[in-house]
Amino acid sequence: MPLETSIRLVANGINAVTGQYDLAPIEARELAARLRKGAVADAGVKRHDTDRGLRLKTRAFPALPLGTHPENIAEAGWGIVFHRDEDSRVKAALAPLIAHRRKQIGNDSLVHELTYYPNDTIEKWLTANNTAWGDIQPTRVPYYLLVVGTPERIPFSFIHALDAEYCVGLLGFDDADDYAQYAKSVIDYETQADVPNRREAVFFGTRHPFDDATTLSADWLVTPLADGLPAMGLTPARPPVAQQWKFGQRKFVAENATRQALLDVLTPQSNPPSILFSASHGMVWPNGDAHQLNAQGALLCQDWSGFGSIAPAHYLTAADVPDGARVHGLIAFFFACFGAGTPDRDRFSHEPDTEPPALAPRPFFAKLPQRLLAHPGGGALACIGHIERAWGYSIVGQSSEPQIGPFQRALGRLMLGQPVGLAVQEFNDKCAAASVALTSLLEQAYARRPVDDAQLSVTWAERNDAEGYVALGDPAVKLRIDKLVAA
Q1: For the residues of 316-363, what is the DSSP string, one character each?
Q2: Which of 5, 56, 258, 377 registers the highest number of CB atoms within 10 A of its CB?
């Protein structure tokens, strides 16, 4: 589906009440007009995005001390960030994980407990910790940072700024016991003689009738990741990502991507997979709906026949994951609206100079990844997902072939046994590049120079989509690839 001169941008996400897109598709020309109108007010492009772009241009993780290997936490360091008023029970629950990281790294100067104070900006927080943008000093602020607590206390805006340079993981539960269970799961996975998981990746992608969003994600994301891409002109063929890194794989696309198939992946009779990659609609409830906090971001499966009525049997929620599930050692990646969390305000669909619409009474993490991370049978290592909406045109870009490089590299890093936080940096780098491009286009629009509607709109979608990816869980966790069971 090549980029056309006149396009509609579609965000993943189905409204649970209406059975329609939660956000109506936006014509490129309409979105471009909004962006031009809001150019003076920055149209959501923050100053730190320019910092991201400058970082990208020099690449190779220049902010780390020269010679530091970013994939090695014993060199890059590990830290945990607590809100000033965090419950002492939560800190006690995570104390074993902190002690485990200290023992693993073997250098106390590279392991830190840091504090977030109410209303800290990223600049204020870095300054308080004796560092600044472009100057990562692991003995002051380690490269890998586990940020603990709800987004009501440590806001998503701070997280999006922090992960411009640092490998960030988020951990937030309603109960201190869940923190303890997650810590125990990570320690067990990293210290036991063997691990239960197969050297296997599972690809899951819905494709609903007359649905541009899942047509894009099935045909332009899941399928080329699982099947590879043919040679095009001077570009050589790209093999399936699992084949490239010697992983086995299973693929469930379109009619095979049912709710039962997904449950079977999570409740296998034999060894569970190491990686689950899914692309689907995330379920969306109206602001304040009784189901919103427990089911927002739930994965809509192929059981749904298409636009119109929708039922709980069509999607997978946290409550549907049984105690008998086997997810210990799993890294899950959900391409779905609100698959990781929901902010309280809509950042992207309002008119300039107007108050952003409310999305929820308060910001919150999605319950499905929380359930997987703190599962009583042993938790998942991490879940990569989306804060806010996922934009399908981010995988189309301005090309006639899928733009899935960040996904290929992120999955490749996981299959090489590199930390999950480093895998998510692939999307932060894409956000950096798109931020610089978007800033340039908006400057041209403000100066009343010609700017193509499709180029402006798609760049906006690419940037916003890339910014939304986060890791839920410890960013330092990684697959023990030498111990995985042969697929």
Answers
A1: E-GGGS-TT---TT-EEEEESTTSSEE-SB-SSSSPTTSPPPB--SS-
A2: 56
